[in-house]
Amino acid sequence: MHAEAPRQSPGRPRIAVVGGGIGGLAAAAFLRRAGVMATVYEQAPALKEIGAGILVSPNAVRLLRQLGVMDRFLRDAVPVELAWEFRRWENGRVLSVERLDGVCERLYGERTYTVHRADLLDTVKAAVPEEWVRLGARCTAVEEQPDGVLLHFADGSKAEADVVIGADGVHSVVRATVTEPSTPEYSDICAFRTLVPAERAPAFALRRAHTLWLGPGRHLVHYPVNGGRAVNVVAFAPAGDFTEESWSTTASVEEFLAEFTGWDPRVTDLIRSGGTPGRWALLDRAPLRRWSTPRTTLLGDAAHPMFPFFGQGAAQAMEDGAVLAAALAEGADDIAGALQRYEEARIERATRLQTVSHGRAHVNHLPDGPEQQARDIALADSDPLTANGWIYAYEAAL
């Protein structure tokens, strides 16, 4: 039994995208924009995101504009006016803040926004024809052959393709076709997340600000989402013996609060105002040395899972999708060459972001003392918007 795919034009490769998250749908959307058809295989019965908020920086916003979905995006996105507002854990003293109004557009052509992950997914999904998506299709194996690739699914069905794109996340099945599996290491960091309805949120948390509270061994981030109807809260703390890496696991409000005992009351009040928090462990993975074989490649978390401390996970997956689509559109007669050009265009940048995101955990979690004091002075003198220009000015092209 074979899963049906959309009818492809003669001479064009049959492209299978495994995973219907933001990266997989972005790849399909950019392929469509380039005149190339694809089939997206998603294991869930519906396209949805179960995470919470996300920062959408100019490099990602430009891609949404290219896809023609900005109107959909702006329905629920919140433009950020103050970013990297760093505060001290015990009293909320502002260590550094950067005003983005007008500056972001002047430097990088677009604003920075915050949005719920589900709203970003819906935005990208709007650029992909519904008939391109196969739901309830859990890929269990990818078998690369000289003249194509055979995908196996949990229900016993199969599908043939000329190219397979593994956009199936941090626990990727497709990755085993590309590289030897490696065991992730425990980072000893876990994340808590919750959404606070605007009517229950303290007024300071409703500002159009991306705020980070820094403390010993921990930090907490909050910003508005859902068009200002809710506040996203995500925090990072020691994991202890907690090792579950899943966005579906939960903790209690009491467990969340216990990690931030003694912090500014505005932080603990915000935590109390949320619902049952999610909790997941951050596992550490070394960067891959290669992403591709002659007919199979990876993108997003399947290729380069990164700690969320630079807010670039989804943006990098979207960039991957745009560059990969361009490579396949230009190199339909040489798939292996197209996948290699994609990898060469993307791997150095993604690896650099993995590395700097990893290093940020140490900086954010310094214990009080001379090193922390030096960090706070450096923050006061910093200009993140300009310093991170290599991230935000990037154009996703071959």
What does this structure look like?
The structure is a single chain. With 398 residues, the chain is α/β, with parallel strands linked by helices. The protein has helices at 22-33, 58-66, 70-74, 103-108, 117-125, 175-178, 253-258, 265-273, 313-330, 335-364, 370-380, 384-387, 389-392; strands spanning 15-18, 39-42, 53-56, 78-79, 82-88, 94-99, 113-116, 133-135, 139-145, 148-153, 158-161, 163-166, 185-197, 209-215, 218-225, 230-238, 278-284, 296-298. It has a domain at 15-78 and 119-183 and 286-361: 3-Layer(bba) Sandwich (FAD/NAD(P)-binding domain), CATH 3.50.50. It has 13 helices and 18 strands. The strands form 4 sheets. The chain has a 7-stranded mixed beta sheet with strand order 6-5-14-15-16-13-17, with helices on both faces. A 5-stranded parallel beta sheet has the order 8-2-1-12-18. The protein has a 3-stranded antiparallel beta sheet with strand order 3-7-4. A hairpin with a 2-residue loop joins strand 14 and strand 15. The longest helix is centred in the C-terminal third of the chain and has 30 residues, at 335-364. The protein is globular, with a radius of gyration of 21 Å. The relative contact order is 0.18.
In short:
The protein has 398 residues and is of the alpha/beta class.
Keywords, please?
alpha/beta, 7-stranded mixed β-sheet, globular, 398 residues
Low-confidence stretches: 1-5
The radius of gyration over CA amounts to: 21 Å
Oligomeric state of this protein: single chain
Report the top-level CATH class of one domain: Alpha Beta
